[in-house]
Design brief:
Residues 1-141, 171-308 form the UspA domain. By secondary structure, this protein is α/β, with parallel strands linked by helices. It has a domain at 164-310: Rossmann fold (3-Layer(aba) Sandwich). It has eight helices and ten strands. It has helices at 13-29, 53-78, 93-101, 124-132, 182-195, 223-244, 260-267, 291-299; strands at residues 5-8, 33-39, 84-90, 106-110, 137-140, 170-174, 199-205, 250-256, 270-278, 304-309. Strands 3-2-1-4-5-10-9-6-7-8 form a ten-stranded mixed β-sheet, sandwiched between helices. α1 packs across α2 (53-78) and α3 packs parallel to α4 (124-132). It is elongated, with a radius of gyration of 21 Å.
């Protein structure tokens, strides 16, 4: 049985963008799509919900179904041939979505990112799910068309070789050379292959502090030599993957210092940014995301895939 692409929806613009992205991802992977909306009875319901407890539950179910119906319409428009189901989930949103993720191939949520002036941030639900999801989680923002290059696969705009007529943005992978896990690399390459685009791989290195070097080691601290060593290390990591995905053009880059700024710069022209997250045992709620994951969740302008690895 195929595991679906699961997308959590609510009444936000980001959620509807996530439903569109998830529908196209399901089509690209030839997987079913499952729309879910998590709701829970609240002692302080929305102003348009009746105060009576029984009526509150009924009204919330109606609202949940309306949200799912709207998301289904948007998803169907994004990919008419997608196989789709829609289910309301009862319970606290984070816990309900994580239970749904256990049966998913990929989990998708809307994300507001971080507005520099308003201070609007990725919601607590998205942060909790991102920190504990057992499967790759993709966060999608509203109003960013870069990811839409996948639409050419559904509009007939392809050449005889099956490639899009118009260029699409790259998939970008932030690769930690200290822990180059297979799950993250494979997810990024699979995404690039499905879209018929390049994979750009960015890795960072740092010069060792001079006081940590022993006699005769100062020459190794020279920037050109150190950079060349790290570039060779990255190429060695990617060499076997190039053989497994010969149809994907892989372009590697190493940068000195912190990876966040160049990664966000590359994401400006990307259709998807992929980073890894160490999957701590138990997938407990309340776990924290690492500094790189935290930064790209809040600031990247393209969809962000957070891939757990052992």
């Amino acid at each position: 049985m195929l595991r679906p692409v699961v997308v959590g929806v609510d009444d936000s613009a980001e959620s509807l963008a996530a439903a569109e992205w998830a529908a196209q991802e399901a089509c690209l992977r030839d997987l079913p799509l499952r729309l879910v909306h998590a709701w829970n009875w609240s002692p302080h319901p929305a102003s348009d919900v009746p105060a009576d407890a029984a009526a509150v539950g009924a009204a919330q179910r109606v609202r949940a179904r309306a949200m799912l119906d709207e998301a289904e319409t948007r998803a169907r428009a994004a990919c008419p041939r997608v196989r789709m189901t829609a289910d309301p989930l009862e319970g606290p949103a984070s816990a309900a979505l994580l239970r749904a993720a256990e049966q998913a191939e990929v989990m998708v949520l809307g994300s507001r990112g971080l507005a520099a002036f308003t201070g609007v941030v990725v919601g607590s639900v998205a942060q909790s799910v991102a920190a504990a999801s057992p499967v790759p989680l993709v966060l999608v923002r509203a109003g960013e068309p870069r990811w839409a290059c996948a639409r050419v696969h559904f509009e007939g705009e392809v050449t005889s070789k099956g490639k899009p007529e118009r260029p699409c943005a790259d998939v970008v992978l932030g690769l930690d050379l200290a822990d180059p896990c297979d799950e993250v690399v494979e997810f990024a390459l699979t995404a690039a292959r499905a879209r018929g685009v390049r994979l750009r791989v960015l890795s960072a290195w740092r010069s060792p502090a001079l006081y940590t070097l022993g006699p005769g080691e100062l020459a190794l601290a020279e920037k050109p030599r150190r950079e060349e060593e790290w570039r060779g290390f990255q190429d060695a990591v990617l060499r076997s993957w190039r053989g497994k995905f010969p149809e994907v053009e892989v372009v590697g880059t190493v940068v000195e210092g912190r990876i966040v700024t160049p990664l966000l710069g590359a994401a400006e022209d990307a259709c998807l940014l992929v980073v890894g997250r160490h999957a701590h045992a138990g997938h407990r709620l309340g776990q924290h995301n690492g500094p790189v994951t935290h930064a790209v969740m809040h600031h990247a302008r393209c969809p962000v895939a957070i891939v757990p690895y052992p």
